[in-house]
TrEMBL record, chain A:
SMART domains to which the protein is assigned, alphabetical: UBCc
Organism from which the protein derives: Patellaria atrata CBS 101060
Residue stretches in coiled coil: none
Protein name, UniProt field: E2 ubiquitin-conjugating enzyme
Gene Ontology molecular-function annotations: ATP binding; ubiquitin conjugating enzyme activity
Pfam families cross-referenced by the UniProt entry: UQ_con
EC number: 2.3.2.23
The keyword Cell membrane appears for this protein: no
From TrEMBL, chain B:
GO biological process per UniProt: protein ubiquitination
Catalytic activity: [E2 ubiquitin-conjugating enzyme]-S-ubiquitinyl-L-cysteine + [acceptor protein]-L-lysine = [E2 ubiquitin-conjugating enzyme]-L-cysteine + [acceptor protein]-N(6)-ubiquitinyl-L-lysine
Region described as Disordered: 1-44
Name this polypeptide is given: RBR-type E3 ubiquitin transferase
PANTHER family linked: RBR FAMILY RING FINGER AND IBR DOMAIN-CONTAINING
Entry EC number(s): 2.3.2.31
The keyword ATP-binding is annotated on this UniProt entry: no
Natural source organism: Patellaria atrata CBS 101060
Record-linked InterPro entries: Ariadne, ARIH1-like_UBL, E3_UB_ligase_RBR, IBR_dom, TRIAD_supradom, Znf_C3HC4_RING-type, Znf_RING, Znf_RING/FYVE/PHD
Positions with biased composition (Acidic residues): 1-36
Length: 154, 509
């Protein structure tokens, strides 16, 4: 596969110096197209104390198509779909905005920044976004509660 | 600049609108070159325009190309650039001729540079080998690797550049505004670079897409959204007029669509209400789901009743009770002045004092309209199914008896009228949901009721057996033209009132 060299390089770079608060590994050693990211809830966010698993799937035509990010740990967040997919798809993760020179580590960092500062104007979960904008206290309460309930164990 | 203004001022004032009405006509005439494309005769053939209709013109692919070439030639003569470069400049300027000419006269070098046309050779488009190079995309390196970079200096191997462009052109349908593959780089890949890099097999697709962008960039042109249709429609209605006009156009392929939002014909409801309504329906889909289900209980004996035709006049198989599928009321009341199935009766204010009662009331109100909206949509489908079945039977009848094909055509006409009227009715309910009550709403509801009754009467005829149908031709033709007439009356009345601002929309409903 033509993109193997690139993926292997990215993987070794990101395992050597991962974005802060994250660890990256292959879900299955034999498949470089599926990564697992373990992300600690950033200290400055409502998700602090939680440990989130994110599955990163690289399409066959990666890096010409963006990686797919999905939270396998349930999370209460306007930019993460509240279903069994837990997908996050905005900014550089959209195929019209993704550039083949972008790196997965940048995508992971973006996900982490979104935990700190959700983007309510570009939400998949509109009702959570509304709550985030209009009733921040309630949003934080639920987000913390879910973090405790679903993301408690490392 | 122009287009920004238009989008920002959707809520235009009355005066604004009147001004624009004048310029609308002008705009339209201005592009209509006499005798050029043979459209001039069409106007004489068309029947007099109704209040709800707008002027429009359909362009074929060849004509769009001609239009484009003409503009290029015109601008090329003014700025003294060859046509190839002028085309690049125009695409870059999103076909805004005036702005391009003005800025070209003002700052020629800057304009050429930003379109990738600058004349100095340095760093400009060519394929070279580079020392000490590693491609950031595939991570290959080596002195022998062919590489390419635009003036921004983001250099990649030619293979990767090509794959990138191919994926943009083939998968995403981009052509005129593909960005440099470099991280965060906004530079547009200019046509010269594209020419150098795009492989033979993609050239046709690339040129097709360039024509696409031409239409996309023109405010008065829209592609027909019907699948595989290659026509574009020209219409002078502007974004800001859309609160007062519902510009439905008909493509030469037969597809009716809204020029404002490209959705299927949604007259009489204006685009922004359609958008609001669809969003609301999506958000409330779970609450409303049970309503549109295909089975209900007979209000009298509670046995399950399934709906299989479009007609809303139901008769329970078990107890023979006749009722209306929409309001579940007794059917006999529907043919008389008692009919008020379409009207939502507001409960008196005292009932709704506490928040809970209020929210229940607002849900009930929504469901009233949603129920009818969804029902007409569903009924249109069922009408069509039953028509197709009937048609099949009629074809059999035709071959076994001596009836000619012409003699069964009335069925098709009736079916088409039903489809169109139900489509209109469907949107009258979405529209009515947002209407503030005044004396005009009553007229609107009366029109709606008249059309609805006409439609149900016609729809009911389709449930007759095939041998009966043949004898009902005259009656069916009558009912068909009556339906069409009621629809035109409703659309005309509503269009006039919408235009004059007499129809009021409930704020933030
Ligand atoms: Zn490369
Ligand atoms: Zn660049
Ligand atoms: Zn068409
Ligand atoms: Zn529209």
């Amino acid at each position: 596969m033509a993109n193997r060299k690139r993926i292997v390089k990215e993987l070794s770079d990101v395992t050597r110096s991962p974005p802060p608060g994250t660890r990256v590994q292959l879900l299955d050693e034999s498949d470089v197209h599926i990564w697992e990211v373990l992300m600690d809830g950033p200290p400055e966010s409502v998700y602090v104390g939680g440990h989130f698993k994110i599955k990163v799937t690289l399409p066959t035509d990666y890096p010409f198509k963006p990686p797919l990010l999905s939270f396998t740990t349930k999370i209460y967040h306007p930019n993460v779909s509240n279903d069994d997919k837990g997908s996050m798809c905005l900014g550089m993760l959209r195929s019209d905005e993704w550039k083949p020179a972008n790196r997965i580590s940048a995508a992971i960092e973006m996900a982490r920044n979104l935990l700190i500062a959700p983007n309510a104007d570009d939400a998949v979960e509109v009702s959570i976004a509304d709550q985030f904008k209009n009733d921040r206290a309630e949003f934080e309460k639920i987000a913390k509660d879910w973090t405790k309930r679903y993301a408690g164990k490392a | 600049m122009d287009s920004d203004d238009e989008i920002n001022s959707v809520q235009s004032s009355e005066d604004d609108f009147m001004d624009d009405e004048d310029s609308l006509g002008e705009d339209f005439d201005a592009v209509e070159e006499p005798d050029d494309f043979g459209f001039s005769q069409d106007k004489d053939i068309k029947p007099r325009k109704q209040a709800y209709e707008v002027d429009f013109k359909v362009w074929g692919p060849g004509q769009i190309q001609d239009q484009q070439d003409k503009q290029v030639e015109e601008v090329s003569a003014v700025i003294g650039q060859p046509t190839e470069s002028t085309a690049i400049l125009l695409r870059h300027a999103r076909w805004n001729k005036e702005r391009l000419i003005e800025s070209y006269m003002d700052k020629r070098d800057e304009v050429l540079e930003s379109s990738g046309l600058s004349e100095d050779k340095e760093g400009s488009a060519s394929i070279t080998k580079a020392d000490d190079f590693m491609c950031d995309i595939c991570c290959e390196d080596g002195k022998d690797l062919d590489t390419f970079a635009m003036k921004c200096g983001h250099r990649f191997c030619v293979n990767c550049y090509r794959t990138y462009l191919a994926s943009k052109i083939r998968d995403e349908g981009e052509a005129a505004r593909i960005k440099c593959p470099g991280e965060g780089c906004e530079r547009i890949v200019d046509s010269k670079s594209l020419k150098l890099l795009v492989t033979e097999d993609l050239k046709d697709r690339y040129h097709e897409l360039l024509t696409r962008t031409y239409v996309d960039d023109m405010n008065n042109l829209k592609w027909c959204p019907a699948p595989d249709c290659t026509y574009a429609v020209e219409c002078g209605v502007k974004q800001k007029d859309l609160t007062k006009i519902v510009p439905t156009v008909t493509c030469s392929c037969g597809h009716h669509f809204c020029f404002g939002c490209s959705l299927n014909d949604h007259q009489p409801a204006p685009c922004m209400l359609v958008k609001k309504w669809m969003k609301k329906c999506e958000d409330d889909s779970e609450t409303a789901n049970w309503i549109s289900a295909n089975t209900k209980e007979c209000p009298k004996c509670h046995s399950t009743i399934e709906k299989n035709g479009g007609c809303n006049h139901m008769t329970c198989r078990k107890c023979r009770h006749e009722f209306c599928w929409m309001c579940m009321g007794v059917w006999s009341e529907h043919g008389t002045s008692w009919y008020n199935c379409n009207r939502y009766e507001e409960k008196s204010g005292s009932d709704a004092r506490d928040a809970q009662a209020k929210s229940r009331q607002s849900l009930e109100r929504y469901l009233h309209y949603y129920n009818r909206y969804a029902n007409h949509e569903q009924s249109a489908k069922l009408d069509k199914d039953i028509y197709l079945k009937t048609e099949k039977k009629m074809t059999q009848l035709q071959s076994s008896s001596n009836m000619s094909w012409i003699e069964v055509q009335f069925l098709q006409e009736a079916s088409q009228a039903l489809q169109q009227c139900r489509q209109t009715l469907k949107w009258t309910y979405a529209f009515a949901y947002y209407l503030a009550r005044n004396n005009l709403t009553e007229i609107f509801e009366d029109n709606q009721k008249d059309l609805e009754m006409a439609v149900e009467n016609l729809s009911e005829m389709f449930e007759k057996s095939t041998d009966q149908l043949a004898g009902l031709k005259v009656e069916m033709l009558d009912k068909t033209s009556y339906c069409k007439r009621r629809r035109i009356i409703l659309l005309n009345d509503t269009a006039e009132n919408l235009k004059s601002g007499m129809i009021l929309i409930i704020p933030n409903s």
